[in-house]
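During the second half of the funding period, the structural biology subgroup turned its attention to how the target accommodates small molecules. The most pressing case was zinc ion, which had performed well in the primary screen but for which no bound structure existed. We therefore specified the complex as follows and requested a full 3D prediction, including the ligand pose.
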Amino acid sequence: MDNFVEKIKAKFSKAVDGAEKYANIAVDKTSSLIDKAKISVAVNDAEKKIKDIMAEIGEYVYDNYGAGVEFPDEIGTKCAEIEALKQEIAELKKSVVCSHCGEYNPSENEYCGKCGEMLN
Ligand SMILES: [Zn+2]
């Protein structure tokens, strides 16, 4: 649990560092010449970076959900939604779900790509 919280904190501090760096670029540009296009590009880059890091945090939380870590109900609901969507995708792709670890495998696979158990 402590380790998990530390990793989340590290991801957030990475996001803050990135945002500060971009904020400095924006300030420098306004003080030298007003180049709105360059500022706009820097803002878009920073916003994209934030979204990427947010997605990274989300993936990390999702991967750790159900691994003995306690999460608020809202996160549990979102993780269940992801599971339902994965199931929907699997059905659309006619995937085979491993009875051992729950991983979705392409129907042509004989063994699970995650745990190596034989698929039925
Ligand atoms: Zn498996």
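Two results from this model are relevant to the next phase. The chain has two domains: 1-71, 74-120. The beta strands are 96-97, 104-105.
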